[in-house]
């Protein structure tokens, strides 16, 4: 089954084609992402109406480009998957409207995909994917969650952020230190030149039981340190390193606890912050100390929003016989625990 995936939940337009007849990474025939970073940079953040309009301009050309790269005609498609939530309602409606229209015209099924399930399943696109049960760390600008995955489509929330997501904390911390938008990747690059240990910030909520996160207080600590410093380039790098170390160590401690609580040794990490080099290294070290421990990441270009994860997640559900009616419907707020389980034969076929 050749499935077109469409992602328009926020400020990236993503399109991909996944073929379930091929195994693992070979099934991803083509994918492309258009980022709106330059459009929103002058505003210091995403402007929803501008995001929606840019999706309208870019989506159809990107679909044509992706199909050409895959060597396919649009009539070769067997199904269409699209992000239906969570996300910005206007942006979601652009992708849903195009996806439903294509499915209707081609007389193929369409399926709505949960954005965070797409992220969660992205590491499974690679060769030698892990099989449930495992624990997933979903860590991005909008989400920081620990999820027990008992089966594809059967998820239990173990912990989540009580305020800022980790990626959001990266972005806001970068902004208060004067770094350009988007600040998170800029801060991570700056931290590479920082002196380890010169600034040591708290590891929030690690001194008590539980798997929830909180990063707002950490931002305040950085603000006070920055305000009282000489604000030189080296000091900026040192503070960035101290902040990054605090976030990474907090995530690692909570992941260790989550694996213990779930009684398994496999961790998968997805979302934009999953591209952070220091986080990847720390989680590899943590899981290597566990007997049979393993951590899996998507390739770097599939950490941020993309159509590949939507095509893959949609393909699993379409092969399981799940699809939508002709109504164009999105769900800007959507609890992943409400998703139906995907039966094992469909997963094996992918």
In short:
By secondary structure, the protein is of the alpha/beta class. Helix content is 42%, strand content 18%.
Task: Write up this protein.
By secondary structure, the protein is α/β, with parallel strands linked by helices. It has 2 domains: 2-122 and 302-349, Nucleotidyltransferase, domain 5 (2-Layer Sandwich); 131-297, Nucleotidyltransferase, domain 5 (2-Layer Sandwich), CATH 3.30.420. 42% of the residues lie in helices and 18% in strands. The protein contains 11 helices and 10 strands. The chain has helices at residues 37-41, 48-70, 89-106, 115-121, 166-176, 183-191, 216-227, 233-262, 277-288, 307-319, 344-349, and strands at 2-7, 12-19, 28-35, 79-85, 110-114, 134-139, 144-151, 154-160, 266-270, 294-296. The strands form 2 sheets. The protein has a 5-stranded mixed β-sheet with strand order 3-2-1-4-5, sandwiched between helices. The chain has a 5-stranded mixed β-sheet with strand order 8-7-6-9-10, sandwiched between helices. The longest helix has 30 residues, at 233-262. The model is unreliable at 345-350 (pLDDT under 50). Residues 28-312 form the Gcp-like domain. It catalyses: L-threonylcarbamoyladenylate + adenosine(37) in tRNA = N(6)-L-threonylcarbamoyladenosine(37) in tRNA + AMP + H(+). Fe cation binds at residues 115, 119, 305.
């Amino acid at each position: 089954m050749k499935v077109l995936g469409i992602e328009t939940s926020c400020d990236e337009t993503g399109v991909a084609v996944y073929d379930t007849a091929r195994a693992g990474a070979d099934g991803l025939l083509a994918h492309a992402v258009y980022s709106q970073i330059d459009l929103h940079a002058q505003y210091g953040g995403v402007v929803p109406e501008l995001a929606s309009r840019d999706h309208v301009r870019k989506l159809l050309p990107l679909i044509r480009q992706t199909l050409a790269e895959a060597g396919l005609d649009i009539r070769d498609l067997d199904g269409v998957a699209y992000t239906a939530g969570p996300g910005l309602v206007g942006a979601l409606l652009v992708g849903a409207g195009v996806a439903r229209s294509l499915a209707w015209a081609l007389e193929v099924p369409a399926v709505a995909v949960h954005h965070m399930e797409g992220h969660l399943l992205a590491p499974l696109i690679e060769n030698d994917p892990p099989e449930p049960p495992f624990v997933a760390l979903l860590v991005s600008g909008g989400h920081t969650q620990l999820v027990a995955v008992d089966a594809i489509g059967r998820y239990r929330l173990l912990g989540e952020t009580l305020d800022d997501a980790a990626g959001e904390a990266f972005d806001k911390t970068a902004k208060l230190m004067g770094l350009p938008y988007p600040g998170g990747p800029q801060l991570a690059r700056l931290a590479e030149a920082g002196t380890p240990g010169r600034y040591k910030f708290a590891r929030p909520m690690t001194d008590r039981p539980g798997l929830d996160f909180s990063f707002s207080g950490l931002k305040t600590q950085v603000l006070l340190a920055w305000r009282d410093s000489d604000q030189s380039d080296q000091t900026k790098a040192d503070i960035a390193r101290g902040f990054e170390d605090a976030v990474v160590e907090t995530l690692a401690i909570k992941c260790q606890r989550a694996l213990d609580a779930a009684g398994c040794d496999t961790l998968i990490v997805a979302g934009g912050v999953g591209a952070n080099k220091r986080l990847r290294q720390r989680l590899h070290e943590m899981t290597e100390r566990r007997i049979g421990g393993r951590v899996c990441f998507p390739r770097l270009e599939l950490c941020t929003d993309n159509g590949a994860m939507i095509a893959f997640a949609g393909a699993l559900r379409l092969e399981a016989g799940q699809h939508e009616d002709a109504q164009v419907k999105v769900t800007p707020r959507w609890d992943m625990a409400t998703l139906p389980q995907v039966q094992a034969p469909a997963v094996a076929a992918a």
